[in-house]
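Thread: iron/sulfur cluster complex, take 2
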Amino acid sequence: MASASVAAPEAVKRDEDEALDQARTQQERMEQLYQKCAEAPEGTVFFQRDLANMAIANMQELVVILQELVDRHLMKIMQFDGEPCWKVRTKEEAERLRKLTPEERLLYHHIDQVQADGIWSKALRMRTNVTTQMLNKCLKSLESKDLVQSVMSVKHPNRKMYLLKHLRPSEDIAGGPWQSEGEFDMPLIRIVAEVVEKIIEKETCLEVPGNWNDYPRAATQDRSAEIARKKAQQKEVMDIEDTPVRTFRPPRDPNRITTVLRDSPKYPTATSLRDAINNANIIKDKSLSVADMEQLLEMMVLEGRLEKIMGNNYRLASRALSTQENFNGFVDAPCGNCPVFEICSDEGEISARTCVYFGEWLDTESEAV
Amino acid sequence: MSYAQRDTPILAKLCTLLVEDQYGELASRIFTVLARHGRQTLPSIVRASYLNSRQIKYGLIVLIQQHLVFHSSFLDPTTTYYEIDWQQAYSLVRYGKILKAVEDRFGGKAANVMSNLIALGHTRIQDLREAYFPPSDNNSDAGSDSGRVNGKVNGHKPNGTANGANGHNNGHSNGHGEGEEDVNDLTIQSEEELDAIIHHLMLEGWIIRVDEIQYLSPGDIQGMVQREVLGEQHDGKMPSGVKAKEQMVFEINSRKRAMRDDWCRVPKCNSRKRLASDPDFSRTTKRLKQGALEWQPRDANNIVMLESGLVIRTNPEKISVALRTEQLVHLVEQRLGPVTAKIYEVMLRLMETTIARAYEPYADPPPSDPDAMGPEVQDKHLVTAQDVAKKLDKDLDILDGLDPYHVVRLVEADTRVRYDTTNRQINPPVDPTTLSYQTRTKVIDCHIRRLADDPFHFTTWHSRAGFSQWHVEFDELSKSLIQHEIETTIQSRGGDRGPLGVKLIRALKKKGKLDERQTCNTMMMPAGEIRQIANEMAVQGFVQTQEIPKVERREAKHSIHLIWYDRQRAREKLLHDTYKGMIRILQRIAFEKEKVRELLNKAERSDVVGNEEKWLSQDELSVLRKWKEVQDKLLLQLLREDDLVATLRDHTGPLTSP
Ligand code: SF4
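Output below.
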C-alpha cells in the first residue's frame, strides 16, 4: 500500500525545492500538499514520512496542515500497523461532508471505519448511541447525499448493511463472484454459463453433416444386403404397424448437421473450466474458485443444460425436454393445461360438454351455457 | 396391495364410464353399486340398485366372465360377496394395446387368438378350438360362448372381433385397409396351429391358467393365506413378537407369490410326432418368428397338444411390461436417437419373456444390509451385444449417431476408411449392412455403452462372460421415468415459466427442504424471481410448503418458510389429474356422439351399411367423417393418457425416500 507513495515523492522532489520558497503562506502549502496527494493513484495511503518527503512543509508545519485538512474533510486520518496515515478525499466529497449534521458525521465516521465489510444498522446504533429515529433519519440523509449505500447481507438476508458509497461490498456481505449488491448477477451468470456451454460442447461433441457416411443407399450390387432388405420387407408386412416402414434410415442431407457425442472425450471438470474462465478474463476484478465453478455447473445441471456423468465430469445435456413438441398424454390434451381444471366437474356450467377448450381443439361446437 | 388395485373415487368414476361403454347399462349399473358401496352380497345389491335379482345375476355373470368382479363363493358358498377388480376394470382401456403389443411381438395370428380370448374373458381350450373349427355335427358340447364366436373368428383381423362393439381399443389402428389382409393370410389353419400359438403365448407369459382363487379379491386372498399360515405355524393364533410377525408376513408373501407363479406355469403338455398328413404350420410359425423375438426352441417334428379342459385367460399384468418397454424406448429415442432406441428395444424385448409383471407387489422386505447381498440379477435378465446382434434388424443403419472418428476404428477389421475432416465424410463410405458379425457386435456394444452412460442409466454393466453382460435396473429407471413425466408436465403447464418450475423441482429434489436463501443459492437466482413460481407449484400440488415460526407471536415476517418436493405426493397428484383428464375425454366423446346420434343410427341401419353413398347426403357424409375424426383424436389422446398412467402407477411401488 505504502509503496506507491514512496515512489511519488522521489519523482517530484527536485521541482519542489522551488515550490518551498514560493509557498508563502500556510494556506498555500496546504493546498499544495493536497494537490500533490490528490495526484497520486486513487486510494493511496500517505504516511507522515511520505508527506514530509514531498518537501512542502517541515514536520511542525505538516502537523498543523494535516489537522487543518482533516478538519476540512479533505483528508482522512487512519491507522495502519499502529502508525497514523492519511488518505485524500475529493473536494466534492469534502464539501458534502462539511454540510453534515454532527450526528450524520458521527455515523459516517463509523461507517467509514468498517470499510467494505459494512455495518449492520443495529450495530451502528449500539456504537453511536443515537436514537433509532435519529439513526434512520441520518442514514436516509446520508444515502440521499450519495455518501453511503446500503446492501442486503447474503449471510443474514434481512440485515441491512451500510458502507461508503464508493466501496464495493466484500464477499462476506455481497456473496461470491456471482453476486453483486447482494443479488445474483443474472447477466454475468448468463454470459459465463454460455461460455462454459461452448467449451464443453467443443470438448465433448462433434458436428457431422447428414451425408457423413454416404454409402450407396440401394446397395443393389451387394447380395447380402439385398437379402437382408428382402427379409426386412417381408417382416414389415408381418408387423402391421402404424408406420409402413419401420427401419430407420437417416436423411442424407449434407446441410442437416447433427451433433454427436465424441467417443471417450476428455470431459471438462470444474477445475479446468474454472481456469478457462479465469484466463479468459470474463469476470472483472474477481477470480473464480473451484467451488464457485461447481456452484455454476450444478445449477446448469438443474437447468437441464448439462449432465453430470461419471463422478465429476460434465457433458452437454441431450435436448430432450427443450425441443420436444409433444409432452405427455395428459398435458397435450386441453384439460392438462386448463386454467379451470380444478373446478371443472362432471356436469354443470364448467364441464366437458360446455368446454370451450375442447371446442377449439376439436373444432366442434360445445354446449352453450 | 398393488397400486393398480387401489380404488379412489376418481378411478371409480373412470372405470364406471369404461364399463358402461363396453358392456352396456345393466352391467354398469351393478358396477356402479359395487363401486359406491364396496363389497356387497347379492341381496344388498338388490336393495341398492332398483334392479331385480334376475337382472343382477345376469349382469354379474357378464362382469365375472370378464373378471371385472371378484366373488368369494370359493371360500363360503352360502354367502357370496362381490367386489370390483379395479385393475382389470381399468385395463378395459388397454385391450387395444394388448393386441397391438402381441401383434408386434408375435404376429397377426397370435393377436387374433388374443383378441378372442379378450372377448371371452376366459375359455376352455376345447371351447376355443370349437369356436375356430366348428365340429361338423351340431351335437357338440360347446357352450353358448363358442356359438357366439363361431364363424366370426377366423379370417378376421383381430381388431374386428374383440373390439367391434367398442371404439376405444381400435384407436388409430383402424386405418389398416382390407387389402393388407389379402396379402397376409391370418387364418389359423388347424387346431394344432391354434394350440401352438396358445402354448407359445403361455411360454411368453401373455396367457395364464385360470384358477378359482383368481376370483377372490386381494383382501380375501390375504385372509385365506393368513389363516393357512396361522393354522400351520402358529396354532391358529396371531403371533405376538415382532420377529414372529415379520416371519408371518414373509411367509404370506412368499405363498402368494408361489400361488400366482403357479398360474403362469405352462402345464406340461402332450406332444406327438408330426405326421405327414398334418398341415405344416411350422413354416408359418417360423415366419412369425421373424417379427417375434424369442420363440421357445421347439422340436419342429413334434406337435403340442394342450389339454382340452384347460381354462385360460390373458395375464392382466403382462401388458404393463410391454408398456414399460415402450415408454423407455420412446425416451431413449428422444435422448439418444432412433438407432440406439431400436437396439434398446431389442434388449428389453429379450428380457420380457421372463418378466411376468412390471412390479412385484408381494416383494419381501428389502434386506437390512443390501450391500451384503451383492447385486442380485437373475441370469435370464442379462443381455449381451451378441444377443442383440442376432435379433436386430439387419437393415438398420447402426453407424448413425456415432462419432465418425470412432467409426473408423470400429470398422477397421472389415475395411480401412478414414474420416476426411474437410468435407466431413467417411472415405470410402461404409455400408453398415455389409459389416461382419464381429464388427456389428462391436458397434452395437458401442450403442449399449451410450445407454449405460446416460444419466438415466438405461442399462447397467453386470459382468463379463466372454462379452459384457448388461442388465436393466427397472425399479430405478421407473422412478426416473416418473420424475421425467412430472417434469414434463410442469414444463408444459408453466409455459414460459415452465423451465423455471422444472429447475425448482430439481433443486428441491436434490437438496431436500430449503429456506428461501438456500433456494436462491442453489438456483443462483434472486428470491423475487423464484417466489411466484414456487407459489404456482404449491397451488398445483407439486411443491409442499411449511412455515416455522421463530418468534412467539408467529409473525409470518419472522418465520422461516421452507419448501420441499415430495415425489410420491407429486406422483399421486399427477395420477389423479390424469384420471380426471381421461374422464373428461370420455365425457366429451359421449357428448360428441350424442350430437350425431340420429345420423349414426341411420348410418348403422343394415340397408345403409355398405351403401352410404347412396342413402346419405353429402352433408351427412361429411358430418360422419368429422365425427370419425373427432372420435379418433379423442381416443388417441385417451390412450396416450393411459401411457402416462402406466408410467406413474404400474411400474414401481410407493416412493418413500426423496
Ligand atoms: S373439460 Fe374443458 S373446462 Fe374441463 S378441465 Fe377439461 S379443458 Fe378444462
